[in-house]
Specification:
Elements (H helix, E strand, L loop, with lengths): L3 E4 L7 H10 L9 E5 L1 H7 L4 E4 L5 H4 L4 E5 L13 H19 L6 E3 L4 H4 L9 H8 L8 E5 L4 E4 L9 H4 L2 H19 L5 E5 L14 H15 L3 E6 L7 H4 L4 E4 L2 H11 L5 E5 L5 E4 L16 H25 L1
Parallel strand pairs: 1-2, 1-5, 2-4, 3-4, 5-12, 7-10, 8-9, 8-10
Antiparallel strand pairs: 6-7, 6-11, 11-12
Helix pairs in contact: 8-9, 8-12
Length: 334
């Protein structure tokens, strides 16, 4: 089996540190072999682990037990932890390009991406809202055919609208959007998570799910018709439910993923319940892509305080998704 490819993220952030710490836990966590893509300088600045520069992904399997294999993207400037710059952003951008290409060409089993600074990527020609949209573009998949899922041991959520102002959410929350996101989510749960009969729920946009139109009509005019359409297609989806009661333990036991009209409805519960091991995974792609559900944390870089739990979780989820996809393909090839 091919190794995982892990991009190091912004060299000035905590990405190199958490990847290095994850490599140290490779035996205890039984991590699938992986190799990093990025600059040697960023790893050397963040950690004292042994690093082995490789020139082909297959070499990773040979060296993984003794050193972190690294496909090098040379840095044109000195790495200063906690001080992002354009040179580091260019390394980040190049590493993303290489990582996606390796996963697409099946030189790697899956792609895991460390945190990036979009602010600095924009200065070197990056034109996407985030890594999710970039990866989709390079895979030739339209953004509306992919889903960003936040997943932890206790909860999976999908934001139906993502990085837009709240005033724009009602107009963005369309029947077609909900149906498309729900279809991709259901298929992704089967394909990447091995859940053969996924159970979905959807939260209301308004408080108390609109109270039958008393506090808004989006639930009546948009969400309920979408749910009925999806149910007619055989998708197990229920709702809309009041978002404030959807994430307690009893409610979570009744579904495999919750679709949420707004960004914060999805991210607040996952970051509250599974902050240290939450994973961002992209569904609907021809490749597997996961990422820690946190940012670059420039203020922590170089202080040996970054928690690698979410990176370890992202590596484990990527490996599990590889196995689930292989099993899915075998079943559907019969």
């Amino acid at each position: 089996m091919k190794p995982l490819v892990v991009t190091l993220g912004d060299p000035a952030g905590i990405g190199p540190e958490i990847v290095a710490k994850a490599w140290r836990r490779r035996e205890n966590e039984k991590l699938m072999p992986f190799f990093a893509v990025g600059s040697v300088a960023s790893l050397k600045a963040a950690s004292d682990i042994p690093v082995k520069v490789i020139h082909h992904p297959d070499e990773a399997l040979r060296y993984f037990d003794q050193a972190l294999p690294l496909f090098e993207i040379p840095s044109l400037a000195e790495v200063r932890l906690g001080q992002p710059d354009q040179a580091g952003a260019q390394v980040t951008f190049s590493a993303l390009e290489v990582g996606v290409k390796m996963a697409l060409h099946e030189s790697a089993s899956a792609l895991v991406t460390a945190p990036v600074s979009k602010e600095h990527l924009y200065k070197v020609g990056f034109t996407f809202p985030g890594q999710t949209e970039f990866v989709a573009d390079r895979c030739g998949i339209a953004p509306d055919q992919t889903v960003m899922m936040l997943a932890g041991p206790d909860l999976r959520t999908v934001p139906l609208t993502i990085h837009i102002p709240y005033k724009d959410v009602p107009s963005a929350l369309t029947l077609d959007l909900i149906i498309s996101r729900a279809r991709v989510t259901a298929e992704g749960l089967r394909y990447n998570f091995g859940i053969q009969s996924p159970r979905l729920v959807i939260a209301g946009l308004n408080p108390h799910a609109g109270e039958n139109g008393a506090i808004g009509r989006e639930e009546i005019e948009i969400i309920r018709p979408a749910v009925k359409q999806l149910q007619s297609e055989g998708i197990d989806i229920q709702g809309p439910f009041a978002a404030d009661t959807l994430f307690n333990p009893r409610a979570r036991a009744g579904y495999d993923a919750a679709l949420c009209p707004t960004h914060d409805q999805a991210l607040i519960p996952i970051k509250t319940i599974n902050f240290d091991n939450g994973v961002n995974t992209t569904l609907g792609l021809p490749i597997i892509r996961t990422s820690p559900d946190h940012g670059t944390a420039f203020a922590l870089a170089g202080k040996d305080k970054a928690d690698e739990g979410a990176m370890v979780a992202a590596l484990l989820m990527a490996a599990e998704s590889v196995h689930h996809r292989q099993a899915y393909k075998k079943i559907h090839a019969l």
